[in-house]
Amino acid sequence: MKQVLIFIVIHLSFITHAQNFLHPNEQLIFGFENQNNKRLVIAKDKNETYLVYRFGSKDTIELEYPTNKTNAWKKFKFSNYLRGGGKKNDAMDLKYLYFQIDKYKYVVYQEYIAEKNTTSYGIKVINLQTKKTTVIKANEKNVKGSLHFFTNKNTIEKGNELFK
Length: 164
Prior knowledge:
Elements: H1 2-21, E1 26-33, E2 39-45, E3 51-56, E4 61-65, E5 77-83, E6 92-101, E7 104-113, E8 118-127, E9 133-137, E10 144-145, E11 157-158
Parallel strand pairs: 5-11
Antiparallel strand pairs: 1-2, 1-10, 2-3, 3-4, 5-6, 6-7, 7-8, 8-9
């Protein structure tokens, strides 16, 4: 009986931690885990009152943005570039959701390159003072959702930066 109780407590604890990344009133837009078991979640409130970025380990959210959800949609920018024509025209579909905290720009990316016939996903953290970029690549096997959600969204500011 004691072992069953311990199992239930551990199981419920895991569920609680997992729910920190996606609350019951939220819908996942885009998310993944990387090779180091870090997790990214981009979610919106089901009533679309806010947008949120969460990143961290399975047990700990290391960065949540914005902390104040008032006017949260306006705290992000979305830019994209689409060039058709297949491999012969070096076709690509680039999508970027980004925001800035102090001297760092955080860029969630989804990049399709026809020449390689691959889509890559991840986060680019750019130090705006040193111009150094740290890339956190997604484990492509567990990507959920798409940044395409933002393509025609009027609630988010359209940016013009590309981060390829």
